[in-house]
Amino acid sequence: GAGIQADIKTMMANGVYAMSAITALTAQNTTKVADIMEVTPQFLAEQLDCIFTDIRPDAVKIGMVASADLIRTIAGKLTEYPVMVSTSGARLISEEAIETLKEKLFPLATVITPNIPEAEVLADMEIETVQDMEKAAEVIGTRYGCSVLLKGGHQKNDASDLLWQKDKKPVWFHGVRIDNPNTHGTGCTLSSAIASNLAKGRDLETSVEAAKRYISGALAAMLDLGSGSGPMNHGFAIKEEW
Fold it and tell me: What is the pTM of this model?
Protein backbone atom coordinates (compact mmCIF):
# COMPACT_ATOMS: atom_id res chain seq x y z
CA GLY A 1 0.00 0.00 0.00
CA ALA A 2 3.00 2.32 0.26
CA GLY A 3 6.33 2.96 -1.39
CA ILE A 4 7.06 1.90 -4.95
CA GLN A 5 3.85 -0.18 -5.21
CA ALA A 6 1.71 2.84 -4.34
CA ASP A 7 3.80 4.97 -6.71
CA ILE A 8 3.27 2.70 -9.72
CA LYS A 9 -0.48 2.36 -9.14
CA THR A 10 -0.85 6.11 -8.63
CA MET A 11 1.07 6.97 -11.78
CA MET A 12 -0.94 4.52 -13.86
CA ALA A 13 -4.19 5.95 -12.51
CA ASN A 14 -2.96 9.45 -13.36
CA GLY A 15 -2.24 8.62 -16.97
CA VAL A 16 1.55 8.30 -17.12
CA TYR A 17 3.91 5.35 -17.49
CA ALA A 18 5.85 4.51 -14.33
CA MET A 19 9.45 3.28 -14.23
CA SER A 20 11.11 2.36 -10.95
CA ALA A 21 14.56 2.32 -9.40
CA ILE A 22 14.44 0.44 -6.10
CA THR A 23 16.39 1.95 -3.20
CA ALA A 24 15.34 -0.57 -0.56
CA LEU A 25 13.18 -3.63 0.01
CA THR A 26 10.82 -3.46 2.97
CA ALA A 27 9.09 -6.24 4.87
CA GLN A 28 5.88 -4.54 5.99
CA ASN A 29 2.14 -4.82 6.26
CA THR A 30 -0.67 -2.59 7.51
CA THR A 31 0.53 -2.81 11.12
CA LYS A 32 4.32 -2.49 10.98
CA VAL A 33 7.58 -2.24 9.07
CA ALA A 34 9.45 -5.38 10.15
CA ASP A 35 12.70 -4.92 8.25
CA ILE A 36 14.48 -2.87 5.59
CA MET A 37 17.18 -4.08 3.19
CA GLU A 38 18.90 -1.39 1.13
CA VAL A 39 20.29 -1.96 -2.33
CA THR A 40 23.92 -1.03 -2.94
CA PRO A 41 24.71 2.39 -4.42
CA GLN A 42 26.27 0.61 -7.42
CA PHE A 43 23.08 -1.36 -8.12
CA LEU A 44 20.94 1.78 -7.77
CA ALA A 45 23.23 3.55 -10.26
CA GLU A 46 22.81 0.66 -12.73
CA GLN A 47 19.01 0.88 -12.43
CA LEU A 48 19.05 4.62 -13.08
CA ASP A 49 21.39 4.26 -16.06
CA CYS A 50 19.05 1.66 -17.57
CA ILE A 51 16.07 3.97 -17.22
CA PHE A 52 17.64 7.18 -18.46
CA THR A 53 19.41 5.63 -21.46
CA ASP A 54 16.24 3.98 -22.80
CA ILE A 55 12.90 5.57 -21.80
CA ARG A 56 13.79 9.07 -20.65
CA PRO A 57 11.45 10.30 -17.88
CA ASP A 58 9.64 13.63 -17.90
CA ALA A 59 9.52 13.79 -14.10
CA VAL A 60 11.13 12.02 -11.17
CA LYS A 61 9.59 11.27 -7.79
CA ILE A 62 12.04 10.40 -5.01
CA GLY A 63 10.66 8.41 -2.12
CA MET A 64 12.40 6.49 0.64
CA VAL A 65 16.13 7.19 0.75
CA ALA A 66 17.63 5.75 3.90
CA SER A 67 21.35 6.45 3.57
CA ALA A 68 23.70 9.20 2.51
CA ASP A 69 25.40 6.99 -0.12
CA LEU A 70 22.10 6.32 -1.89
CA ILE A 71 21.21 10.01 -1.84
CA ARG A 72 24.58 10.92 -3.35
CA THR A 73 24.03 8.33 -6.08
CA ILE A 74 20.60 9.76 -6.95
CA ALA A 75 21.88 13.34 -6.95
CA GLY A 76 24.81 12.37 -9.16
CA LYS A 77 22.59 10.66 -11.71
CA LEU A 78 20.05 13.51 -11.76
CA THR A 79 22.95 15.87 -12.47
CA GLU A 80 24.21 13.53 -15.21
CA TYR A 81 20.72 13.13 -16.70
CA PRO A 82 18.79 16.38 -16.07
CA VAL A 83 14.99 16.13 -16.14
CA MET A 84 12.29 18.76 -16.28
CA VAL A 85 11.02 18.27 -12.75
CA SER A 86 11.57 16.16 -9.69
CA THR A 87 9.64 15.82 -6.46
CA SER A 88 11.10 14.56 -3.23
CA GLY A 89 8.85 13.09 -0.55
CA ALA A 90 11.76 11.63 1.31
CA ARG A 91 11.67 9.64 4.54
CA LEU A 92 14.29 11.14 6.82
CA ILE A 93 16.24 8.45 8.66
CA SER A 94 19.82 9.02 9.80
CA GLU A 95 21.33 12.40 10.65
CA GLU A 96 23.92 11.87 7.93
CA ALA A 97 21.18 11.14 5.42
CA ILE A 98 19.31 14.31 6.41
CA GLU A 99 22.42 16.44 5.88
CA THR A 100 23.07 14.82 2.48
CA LEU A 101 19.47 15.40 1.43
CA LYS A 102 19.83 19.07 2.30
CA GLU A 103 23.14 19.45 0.50
CA LYS A 104 22.76 17.26 -2.59
CA LEU A 105 19.12 16.53 -3.40
CA PHE A 106 16.85 19.38 -2.32
CA PRO A 107 18.57 21.99 -4.55
CA LEU A 108 17.82 19.74 -7.56
CA ALA A 109 14.12 19.32 -6.71
CA THR A 110 11.26 21.32 -8.15
CA VAL A 111 9.24 20.68 -4.99
CA ILE A 112 9.65 18.78 -1.73
CA THR A 113 6.69 17.49 0.27
CA PRO A 114 7.53 17.34 3.99
CA ASN A 115 4.97 16.59 6.66
CA ILE A 116 4.94 18.69 9.82
CA PRO A 117 7.49 16.65 11.84
CA GLU A 118 9.88 16.65 8.88
CA ALA A 119 9.35 20.37 8.32
CA GLU A 120 10.15 21.06 11.97
CA VAL A 121 13.53 19.38 11.43
CA LEU A 122 14.23 21.21 8.16
CA ALA A 123 13.14 24.65 9.43
CA ASP A 124 14.58 24.26 12.95
CA MET A 125 11.31 25.37 14.55
CA GLU A 126 8.15 24.05 16.13
CA ILE A 127 4.98 24.16 14.05
CA GLU A 128 1.69 24.59 15.90
CA THR A 129 -0.34 27.15 13.93
CA VAL A 130 -1.21 28.13 10.38
CA GLN A 131 1.22 31.03 10.71
CA ASP A 132 3.95 28.60 11.80
CA MET A 133 3.34 26.52 8.69
CA GLU A 134 3.68 29.57 6.46
CA LYS A 135 6.88 30.64 8.16
CA ALA A 136 8.41 27.16 8.07
CA ALA A 137 7.62 26.68 4.38
CA GLU A 138 9.26 30.00 3.57
CA VAL A 139 12.35 29.14 5.63
CA ILE A 140 12.71 25.73 3.96
CA GLY A 141 12.11 26.97 0.43
CA THR A 142 14.50 29.89 0.80
CA ARG A 143 17.15 27.77 2.48
CA TYR A 144 17.16 24.95 -0.08
CA GLY A 145 16.11 26.72 -3.27
CA CYS A 146 12.98 24.70 -4.08
CA SER A 147 9.23 24.95 -3.77
CA VAL A 148 7.65 23.39 -0.68
CA LEU A 149 4.33 21.63 -0.20
CA LEU A 150 3.99 21.49 3.58
CA LYS A 151 1.42 18.84 4.44
CA GLY A 152 -0.91 19.66 7.30
CA GLY A 153 -1.65 16.00 7.90
CA HIS A 154 -4.48 14.40 9.83
CA GLN A 155 -3.91 16.03 13.20
CA LYS A 156 -3.32 19.69 12.43
CA ASN A 157 -5.20 22.08 10.15
CA ASP A 158 -7.57 19.32 9.05
CA ALA A 159 -5.60 17.98 6.06
CA SER A 160 -4.89 21.44 4.66
CA ASP A 161 -1.61 21.74 2.78
CA LEU A 162 0.44 24.86 2.02
CA LEU A 163 2.32 25.42 -1.23
CA TRP A 164 5.21 27.90 -1.05
CA GLN A 165 6.87 29.06 -4.27
CA LYS A 166 9.55 31.72 -4.62
CA ASP A 167 8.20 35.15 -5.59
CA LYS A 168 4.60 33.91 -5.45
CA LYS A 169 1.86 34.23 -2.87
CA PRO A 170 1.52 31.06 -0.74
CA VAL A 171 -1.44 28.90 -1.72
CA TRP A 172 -3.54 26.84 0.72
CA PHE A 173 -5.20 23.61 -0.40
CA HIS A 174 -8.02 22.79 1.99
CA GLY A 175 -8.68 19.06 1.86
CA VAL A 176 -12.03 17.50 2.68
CA ARG A 177 -11.76 15.54 5.91
CA ILE A 178 -12.59 11.91 5.11
CA ASP A 179 -13.30 9.64 8.05
CA ASN A 180 -11.18 6.73 6.86
CA PRO A 181 -8.51 5.18 9.12
CA ASN A 182 -6.91 3.39 6.16
CA THR A 183 -4.31 5.96 5.13
CA HIS A 184 -1.24 3.78 4.53
CA GLY A 185 0.88 5.31 1.78
CA THR A 186 -0.82 8.70 1.53
CA GLY A 187 2.51 10.56 1.36
CA CYS A 188 3.86 8.32 -1.41
CA THR A 189 0.60 8.59 -3.30
CA LEU A 190 0.35 12.37 -3.09
CA SER A 191 3.91 13.02 -4.28
CA SER A 192 3.57 10.47 -7.10
CA ALA A 193 0.33 12.09 -8.25
CA ILE A 194 2.04 15.50 -8.24
CA ALA A 195 4.95 14.12 -10.28
CA SER A 196 2.51 12.52 -12.73
CA ASN A 197 0.77 15.83 -13.36
CA LEU A 198 4.06 17.70 -13.69
CA ALA A 199 5.18 15.12 -16.27
CA LYS A 200 2.04 15.93 -18.28
CA GLY A 201 3.14 19.58 -18.45
CA ARG A 202 0.89 21.08 -15.83
CA ASP A 203 2.21 23.81 -13.56
CA LEU A 204 2.95 23.05 -9.93
CA GLU A 205 -0.19 24.60 -8.43
CA THR A 206 -2.46 22.78 -10.89
CA SER A 207 -0.55 19.54 -10.27
CA VAL A 208 -1.00 19.78 -6.51
CA GLU A 209 -4.70 20.57 -6.88
CA ALA A 210 -5.24 17.55 -9.15
CA ALA A 211 -3.20 15.30 -6.83
CA LYS A 212 -5.26 16.38 -3.83
CA ARG A 213 -8.48 15.55 -5.70
CA TYR A 214 -7.10 12.15 -6.65
CA ILE A 215 -6.05 11.22 -3.13
CA SER A 216 -9.43 12.36 -1.77
CA GLY A 217 -11.16 10.05 -4.23
CA ALA A 218 -8.87 7.15 -3.32
CA LEU A 219 -9.61 7.63 0.39
CA ALA A 220 -13.35 8.16 -0.16
CA ALA A 221 -13.57 4.77 -1.91
CA MET A 222 -13.21 3.30 1.62
CA LEU A 223 -11.11 0.25 0.80
CA ASP A 224 -10.67 -1.78 3.99
CA LEU A 225 -7.81 -4.30 3.96
CA GLY A 226 -5.59 -5.60 6.73
CA SER A 227 -5.77 -5.36 10.49
CA GLY A 228 -3.91 -2.04 10.79
CA SER A 229 -3.94 1.20 8.80
CA GLY A 230 -4.69 -0.25 5.39
CA PRO A 231 -4.07 1.11 1.89
CA MET A 232 -6.37 3.36 -0.09
CA ASN A 233 -7.98 2.37 -3.40
CA HIS A 234 -5.55 3.73 -6.00
CA GLY A 235 -7.71 2.39 -8.82
CA PHE A 236 -11.00 3.89 -7.68
CA ALA A 237 -11.57 5.66 -11.02
CA ILE A 238 -10.58 2.72 -13.27
CA LYS A 239 -13.56 1.03 -14.88
CA GLU A 240 -13.65 -2.73 -14.42
CA GLU A 241 -14.12 -3.54 -18.12
CA TRP A 242 -11.62 -6.37 -18.22
Answer: 0.92
